[in-house]
Design a protein that fits this description.
alpha+beta, Jelly Rolls, 4 domains, four-stranded antiparallel beta sheet, electron transport, iron-sulfur
Length: 649
Amino acid sequence: MQIQTTQKIFKVGLTHRTDMQPLTAETINFEIDMCIGCDRCMRACPVPLSSQVSIADLNRATISEQIAPVVAKFTDECVMCGSCVPVCPVDNHRDLLMLSLKQRLGVPWDGQVDLSKAMRHLPGGWSVSLVLHCLREQALFRNERLVPDNYLLHFVATSEIEVLTAGQELLHEGDFGRDIFFILDGQCEIFSQGTDQKSLPLAILRRGEYIGEQGMLTGQPRNVTVRAAQDRTVVLKVPEQVMQRLMEVVPTVQDFFVQLSTSRAVEDMLSRLDLFEGISAEDMRTLANQATIRRFERDGQLFSEERKGQPVRESFHLLLDGFVKVARKTGREQQPERIIAYRQRGDYFVGGLDMLGDQRAVTVTAINRVAVAEISRQQLKALLTRYPAFKERIQERVRLYQEANTAAHSAVFEPFDRAQLEQALTNTISDAEARAGLHALVNDGVVEGTEVLVIDLDKCIHCNECEEACERRHGQSRMNREGMVIGNMSIVTACRQCQDPVCMLCSRAGIARKPSGEVYITESCIGCGICAERCPYDNISIVSLTDDMEADQLPSWQRFSRFFSKGFGKERGRQMLPMAQTAPEPGPLQTFASDGLENLRKKIAIKCDLCAGYNNQACVQACPTGAAIRVNPVNFFGSTEDILSRKAR
């Protein structure tokens, strides 16, 4: 299998600063000489440990071997967010100075390992050496020169060992999760839900195998259910951040891991498609192994209707993950392209031509991160020859799309209650407006979300109670009811709980996702702003915790006044999130000291988390007219075919 990408595979660490170049020794000395020691960069730094590090200590460590333990720890915890750069009065590149110091200190996994946490969870009869021996049975870790024992010790120390009983679930189909599980002993069964809602057995996983990589690589819900087949099945549960850190340290592990996992994902996807029904498992595996996997970042172009991309049109393209928009050029300056469809996981293109059947080329662009399996013309031709039923299914699919071809040129969705709004659409929606609505759904990423807050403008009385309820509950409003307007619906500016949330690439595990899908800010967040920077829809804000502390120090009469102007601040009766029910444990990649000063956070990220921990959503509950509702955009607005089959009235 070949793997190609328009951008290097995402990694924890410096993914948000891919253009960074280390400074030369001469430049480092010049920057240090220019520093005036004002400590503004350290005050602006969101890392809690920065309160214990002076700029003088940091400068000394940058150009000498005098590196205090607290400076070394701070250097490891630095997330390269760049908050230090704009506050420097002499325009020093403090972020690049930190990069050079990080490179000098090397990989923290080369250092001493604290195995106390791992030892507490070892099952009876197990030792650390036995755990390492079992991990060496994994194909990923067999080469001891590439993955030294010390790396594996850190790997184990920052992960969790679990002992399962027979029938206990490890993964559940449809849940979100990014942890990976390595089977150290015992067996696990893999199931998938069939059309009759019954569990169908797929495979058996044994010692030396792993599961869960699909969730980490794609952010998509689990595609299978995994249960322990034996009592005392021992697995190593590895957080996403730990696996990503290992892949940073050992790029070869990343290459092997991604290639093997992608091959498995392609085979699984092909086997689930009705199009490939009846093709033997051997041919399916061969097809998956020979497929070329292409990865595209947001706005990356899969292929264009221009002739320069002609060779790619000889291939079959299967979307493994993500959303793409299908467009055709108009020749007009103000609207250079017209979106005719959006496609998602499981859809495909034949020869780079329009799936609607007019046999004309189209331009296909990624809306979010997209993975595509490309099958060559020769491979496809062999299948068509060997399996006549496969050829008939392709021809039938094209025929069905041909029936929707005319509708594609006058497509519109009906925003809310179809029966209720049908008459309104007749009078208010023009063809141009219809296309603008479809463009907003696709190009602005609405279809990427799983839970979108929308307001029916026919019912909304503009009381702003939804925003105020959000502020009363959380202390800060996490939404803005004024968003893009499509038809009679307003798409509220608030987190959409994207299917593939790019904001979740946090090295400190400051943002996470519950199995039910809610993306929330954890106790580990330090407000560095990287998640807000990565969010393409500006739905994450960074707030200073200083304001809250200053409010607590106000005179009693001012606090009493704020009660009526700002509300009570936070509602009573909140159910604590899993990470907040007990004293927060150290994150997977760092261990915080018990010193109180170190744990004082300066800032924190805030975003809508669907009121996780409550039994209702404040904005929806507070709306007096029922105008505010939460919807799944694909189910609510319809699939591609649903949208394209509706005509502007």
